[in-house]
Amino acid sequence: MDRGNQSNLSEFVLLGLAHLQDIQIILFMVFLMLYLLIVSGNIVIMIVITTDHHLHSPMYFLLANLSFVDMWLSSVTTPKMITDFLRENKTISFVGCMSQIFFTHFIAGIDMVILVVMAYDRYVAICKPLHYFTIMSLKRCTGLVLTSWTIGFVHAMSHLVVIVQLPFCGPREIDSFFCDLPLVFKLACIDSYELDIFMNADCGLVGVPCFILLLISYTYILLTVCQSSKAGASKALSTCSAHITVVMTFFVPCIFIYVWPLNITWVDKFLAVFYAVFTPLLNPAIYTLRNKEMKNAVKRFITYELSSKRGI
Description:
Rhopdopsin 7-helix transmembrane proteins, three-stranded mixed sheet
């Protein structure tokens, strides 16, 4: 990192979500509980899918990867936010700030592509069922997951390479609970207009095509099922609506923060909390509680664990 033009800036100040101490204590308890649910819920999904041979299929392989990514998406920013509720000076080092920016966009990029791959998996399962296991082989699923990691890494690196070279010599306060890219751009001692255009284009290059592909995939699935069976249409509508809920809660905030920013502070904070906390929480709930096979697998896992503890 070239720190020569940054006037020895060593840290940023995070203003957080609230300023009143009583509110911060309440938020601390709420977000601590949510974070524990996110981590425990996604870990349970990964363990159940890995250990239950009934779930060794392409769909659940992708779901386990989504749970792994979601857990880390929340872990990049939420623990820092939780501990800051108890601190008077909410500072973050320069390296810590750059790390948050990199890993936020790295993991978000992976998440977007995996959601597209999961939609493609459902399209093949419903529209081409006879060729499902040929098309969605383990080799292809692994390749698609590795592709998502590659896209996420390239996307994050493109931001990091630009931002570490910026001169920071003025204000160091970030009006958010983490180092959000557009807010850090505003602190640079240069005109941020071109930086904002770069961010909009870079994030749009990943987010918008993924969002469009997801909507097309689920629309095609629904049209195909509706034409073949009314009973199947009802089930498909229920499944797709749940998946689309996850897609909307993740993509819409990202689009309005990084691609088509509203530049309204409280709205940006709300949207950031939504995709960093509520989306990783919704995924295990939607993909588990609305899935009969997953619910049965969780019951078998709990029964097995209880039996083991009793020595049966």
